[in-house]
Amino acid sequence: MAIVTGTSKxxxxxxxxxxxxxxxxxxxxxxxxxRGAATAEELGVPxxxxxxxxxxxxxxxxxxxxxxxxxxxxxxxxxxxxxxxxARRTLDVNLHGAIRVTEALLPMMRxxxxxxxxxxxxxxxxxISGALREEIASPSLTREAMLAIADRFVREVAAGTxxxxxFPSSGYRVSKVLMNAYTRILARELSADPRRLLVNAxxxxxxxxxxxxxxxxxxxxxGARTPVWLATLPEGGPSGRFFRDEREIAW
Length: 251
Ligand code: NAP
What we know:
The protein is an alpha/beta fold. Helices cover 44% and strands 15% of the residues. The chain has a single domain (2-248), classed as NAD(P)-binding Rossmann-like Domain (Rossmann fold, 3-Layer(aba) Sandwich).
């Protein structure tokens, strides 16, 4: 089974559609149950409501599935404006949401399973400066330290000190920087797992969706290409890497 988060529209819908075309059993999920169920019906796949910010909702999904071959963490938001509340809400969906779903489904992942994080070039480490960039880039960054950086960002935005510490003034950028850090940490944690799970992050490019806007050059199907490629990597493929257009890019 392939589980994709945020399939009601945009890139997630296109990823689900492409995985169905490749013959995978897809479970469509999204927060908006009406739009989500309608899209799932159109794709001919089952639907499970899922709000990645809710432990209960994630727990209900985990309780309803038994074997997972593919997990694509696609659900994401980009809110207008910038303050501590916007930063907190953005991290809650884009970072903590992906972590919640991954951790809940990890015990059900089958041997050879693949986990894909739909990230963004907006999360490249170059948007972080100074010692903070080195801390996040460090191969020995722990999960606890990464989560502490997420909390610190929200606190520092509230206090007006985040820029001095090296953070950009964008909750979206920081959510994707830390999603990338989580990808590296998880791949490292799973490197000795006998199931040989592959964990990678994808940048879909700039895509015409509600989030990307009408001026974006890529269609949702084009944006789905690299996440789908990572979701169907052959055994022994890369893990803990970042890709755009099916090519590895720098963090
Ligand atoms: P979109 O059209 O706005 O779709 C976002 C999807 O995420 C929707 O299905 C939405 O479901 C779902 N979602 C939002 N909050 C959720 C929550 N709390 N729980 C569960 N699902 C939730 O955006 P998109 O452009 O397709 O973006 C998909 C991913 O690609 C995001 O992670 C985004 O950051 C990334 N990305 C996009 C671009 C771009 O140019 N578009 C570029 C780089 C990266 P509802 O219908 O329930 O709201």
